[in-house]
Amino acid sequence: MQKMKLKLGLIFWILLMLVLSACGTGDVSLPTIVPLPTDTPAIALTPSATPLPTNTLAPSPTTPPTHTPTPAPVTYTVTEKDDMFGVALRYGVSLDALKAANPTVIPNMMSVGTVLIIPVTPTPPSTGAGQGDPTQTPDLFNPLRLAKAPVCYADTLGGAYCFAQLENISQTPVENPSVRFTLSGAGTTLEMDGILLLNILPAQKTMPAVAYFPPPIPGGFEVTAQITDWLPVMPDDSRYLEAEIVAEAPTIAAGAGFVEVTGMVNLPQGQAEYVWVLGVVYDINGQVLGLRRWETELPSTSASSFPFDLRVFAMQGEIKELKLFVEAYATIP
Predict the structure, then answer these.
(1) Per-position DSSP letters for 1-70, written without gaps between them
(2) Which of 203, 234, 265 is the last residue of a domain?
(3) DSSP letters for 174-210
(4) Reduced to 3 states, what is the DSSP secondary structure of residue 151?
């Protein structure tokens, strides 16, 4: 082993001498020791993210709203012979609805020239093909039926009053029945809802519903009627009082165009907020010719009897019979 070390040392010195002799004389420059890179990884700085531009949608052009023309309100100017009930009857609306539409007008103190707002929306003429009369679905539970075919009478303004007689075939009263009248002619169809002039149609009684078609109406029209609505009256409903009419049968002269009747309304019990008397005139065939409703001028909380005076005109034809109906609404404490 010692010999081996000597040999290796001798070989090292020989090689060293050979290197020196090959380089010649002069300074021997040892190579510069370049430090090896450390194992610390270089940190690459990531540039901060530049926010991408937001895709802002260009505002779409705003379409101006379409202005649907508002139909002009229906109005009526009061004349010397008008009362609020007559106006309501003329336009086929309830008196309560007419009062609500004109809260500043006192019904029994309307002056000539007063402009009333009529709460109706006239039905425009329809000329579309295939639009027939509405078909009434038979209802076995409907307590109402039409006692006679509907009838219409033209007035001097070019409109028409239409009547349909509703018969309550049940054993209980019904409330607020309504009828849809349809006038068809000359390619035009008009519709209007008709109402009773009393709220209640008693059991086994017949009473006319009425509607008014403002002008113009189609010439040579045909009229149909369809019962559209009604409400049952519960057996324990105490809103309506029992009332009876005491009046002598009026004398109806031959060819008379109107009938006058006076009498009393008696309330056996309870206090009434209002009392209405409806007079209806008929021709020889039992068809309605005209009607009118009388009402107490002011609500009463104590009276049990009310005198009434009523004049009923016929739209046309000769009057053969007058029927009276009464309704009293209880004062609700």
Answers:
(1) -HHHHHHHHHHHHHHHHHHHHHH-SS--PPPP-PPPPPSPPP-PPPPPPPPPPP-PPPPPPPPPPP-PPP
(2) 234
(3) EEEEEEEEEEEETTEEEEEEEE-SSSEE-TT-EEEEE
(4) strand
Instruction: Give the phi and the psi of residue 2 in degrees, each rounded to 5.
Output: -70, -35
CB 244 within 8 A of CB 283: no
Point out the domain boundary residue: 234, 258, 283: 234
**Pairing of β 115-118 and β 288-295:** unpaired
| Average of per-residue pLDDT values in the chain | 78
Tell me the pTM: 0.61
Distance CA 194, CA 94 (A): 10
- Quick: pLDDT tens for 57-81: 444 444 444 444 445 578 888 887 6
Residue 134 is assigned to a structural domain of this protein: no
Residue type, 329: Y
Which of 257, 263, 213, 223 lies closest to 243 in space, CA to CA?
263
- pLDDT score for 2: 55
pLDDT at position 210, please? 96
Do residues 264 and 286 both lie within one domain?
A: yes
Tell me, what amino acid is at 26? G
Report if residue 12 sits inside a domain: no
For residue 188, CA distances in Å to 123, 127, 179, 228 come to 11, 5, 20, 22
Rounded Cα distance between 300 and 328, Å, is 11
What is the rounded distance in angstroms from the CA atom of residue 6 to the CA atom of residue 54? 82
